[in-house]
């Protein structure tokens, strides 16, 4: 019985590998930049994602926003950029750190503090609309060129 399925399994494996070849993937172009909020670098860092607009083929790019607001996009490999096209930009700001372990008074096991530690003041937090993949008002275009340097300036609404 197993011999009956072996050729079928090999055929499925062949087409799976052939369908995943890198030559079929749209090319990613170096894409980096800075996120600003009201003209200043975004505080706290976070994450950025490009959501394709329309019927665009290829994989969406994402990246980490550093503490100074800069980012480098990645699609297939770390730092390789984004495929070309127009994208809605999602920005998620990190506004707190994980709770810390606190030593207990009686010398027992350390305990988790009850609240996350806020790292970004409320006045420096971006509106939630920028984290919405459908409603974010920020649109960028990545061009098929050697470098795409983006400055994304978010505003209080």
> Which series of helices and strands comes N to C?
HEEEEEEEEEEEE
* CATH level 3 topology: Immunoglobulin-like
Average pLDDT number = 86
What is the share of helical residues?
Answer: 10-25%
What is the CATH domain class?
Mainly Beta
Q: Write down the overall geometry.
A: elongated
Write the CATH architecture name.
Sandwich
**How many strands in all?**
12
Number of domains: 1
Supply Rg: 22 Å
Keywords: Signal
Protein name: Carboxypeptidase regulatory-like domain-containing protein
Signal peptide: 1-23
Q: How would you describe this protein?
A:
It contains one helix and twelve strands. By secondary structure, it is mainly beta. It has one domain (31-154): Immunoglobulin-like, CATH 2.60.40. The strands form four sheets. Strands 1, 2, 5 and 12 form a four-stranded mixed beta sheet that branches. Strands 4-3-6-11 form a four-stranded antiparallel beta sheet, with no helix packed on it. Strand 1 and strand 2 (40-41) form a beta hairpin. The longest helix is centred in the first third of the chain and has 18 residues, at 2-19. Mean pLDDT is 86; it is low at 1-5 and 7-21.
């Amino acid at each position: 019985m197993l011999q009956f399925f072996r050729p079928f399994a090999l055929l499925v494996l062949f087409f799976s590998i052939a369908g995943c070849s890198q030559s079929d993937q749209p090319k990613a172009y170096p894409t980096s930049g800075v996120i600003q909020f009201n003209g200043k670098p975004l505080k706290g860092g976070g994450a950025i994602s490009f959501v394709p607009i329309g019927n665009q083929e290829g994989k969406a790019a994402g990246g980490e926003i550093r503490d100074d607001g800069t980012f480098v996009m990645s699609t297939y490999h770390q730092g390789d950029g984004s495929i070309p096209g127009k994208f809605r930009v999602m920005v998620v700001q990190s506004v707190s750190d994980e709770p810390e372990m606190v030593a207990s008074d009686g010398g027992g096991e350390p305990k988790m503090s009850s609240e996350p530690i806020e790292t970004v003041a409320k006045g420096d937090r971006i509106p939630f609309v920028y984290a919405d993949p459908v409603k974010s008002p920020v649109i960028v275009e990545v061009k098929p060129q050697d470098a795409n340097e983006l400055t994304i300036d978010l505003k209080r609404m």
